[in-house]
Design a protein that fits this description.
Strand content: 25-35%
CATH architecture of the largest domain: 3-Layer(aba) Sandwich
Structural class: alpha+beta
Number of strands: 17
CATH class of the largest domain: Alpha Beta
CATH superfamily of the largest domain: Zn peptidases
Order of helices and strands: HHEEEEEHEHEEEHEEEHEEHEHEEH
Length: about 350
């Protein structure tokens, strides 16, 4: 079934011209709710949009996120030499609005051709780029599908993420006395002293072949002439192995617990990791749909990146993240080939019409 390319590009243009950075997705949500109004689309308490389209057979879930990274407020989308681009020096929002456009064209094409299809449930989430809050707070009792796809990987089309890590955030706070610089005494137990001691022994970088830690920011202080009362060190951990993950967290706890009055550690577990065998039946069907619609090579990817898939899988929905073909995402050079939009739409249609 051939997508209507002009309509598909039109959907994408409408979407990217709606400025929807994380926590500000309401205009995009309203646009999608109105577009799918004949299916009684709803906006939940978190701001997600939920669409349920009746069909025959086993339900399938299509999911995408509405938020984009800034700067993304100056959009003049053009198609040049077969690629969608932004004429302005700004992030276009291909991630993940190209997937939303493909979903919109899929539903429109199935409707106008009156093609029999599976029950289709669609979730458009908020805040995926920052916290995955939309997926975390989704009302899962409203979702009946137990398998589905997301198209949110900026790699050549044909890629499927089969391994993704456990992920969490790390926050260490170091504290001490505050006063004027002139009053510093020798060997004073300042927040800076405790922070520097901790930094010297914190696990960081590639801990082993399965686990990475990145300490990203240090914040604190009010002025050059003031001994700072508190410093905060922020980072994240990603691991393909839960045991390695837990052991690394325990090491950080032991380091900060050496001075419990002057150092505290908060670990926030965000999502579980997953690994799927390449013989998985749903994975095989997805690969077949891509091949049947012109994708010559299927690549199974172990990726340190995380997405809403990690959250959805933890709620027993057998999801995979597919690559969209998008290039240079999160930059002013962000682009995607029209041919990849068409191919992905055709593959999605096949997944929605065959079990």
């Amino acid at each position: 079934m051939q997508p209507n390319t002009q309509r598909l590009i039109g959907y994408l243009k409408s979407l990217v011209t709606i400025h929807s950075p994380s926590t500000s997705e309401s205009e995009c949500a309203f646009f999608l709710q109105q577009h799918f109004s004949k299916y009684n689309a709803e906006i939940d308490a978190t701001g997600n949009v939920i669409v349920k389209i009746p069909g025959t057979g086993t339900p399938i879930l299509l999911a995408a996120h509405m938020d984009v990274v800034d700067p993304s407020n100056e959009i003049e989308m053009i198609v040049e030499n077969g690629y969608v681009k932004n004429k302005k020096s700004c992030v276009l929002g291909i991630d993940d609005k190209s997937a939303i456009a493909c979903f919109m064209e899929t539903i429109e094409l199935l409707s106008e051709t009156q093609t029999t299809h599976r029950p289709i449930e669609i979730v458009f989430t908020v805040e995926e780029e920052t916290t995955s809050r939309g997926a975390i707070e989704l009302q899962y009792e409203k979702i009946s599908a137990t398998q589905g796809i997301i198209v949110d990987s900026a790699m050549p089309i044909g890629g499927i993420i089969t391994q993704s890590p456990f992920y969490g955030t790390l926050d260490i706070t170091c504290s001490g006395p505050t006063h004027h610089t002139k009053s510093i005494t020798k060997d004073e137990q300042t927040a800076w002293k405790f922070m520097s001691e901790i930094l010297a022994i914190l696990p960081q970088g590639a801990i082993d072949e399965k686990t990475n830690i990145n300490w990203s920011t240090i914040s604190g202080g009010t002025g050059r002439n003031t001994v700072t009362k508190e410093f905060t060190i922020r980072g994240e951990i990603r691991s393909f192995d839960k045991t390695s993950y837990n052991e690394t967290i325990e090491k950080i706890k032991q380091i900060t617990n050496k001075n419990p009055e002057h150092a505290s550690f908060v670990h926030t577990y965000i999502n579980a990791g997953y690994g799927v065998d390449q013989n998985d039946s749903w994975l095989t069907k997805i690969a077949s749909a891509l091949k049947n619609n012109g994708v010559p090579t299927i690549t199974y990817i172990k990726d340190y990146g995380v997405s809403d898939v990690n959250i959805l899988r933890a709620h027993n929905i057998h999801m995979f993240n597919l690559s969209s073909g998008a290039q240079y995402t999160h930059t002013k050079d962000e682009t995607i080939a029209v041919a990849d939009l068409e191919t992905m739409t055709k593959a999605i249609i096949e997944l929605c019409t065959k079990e």
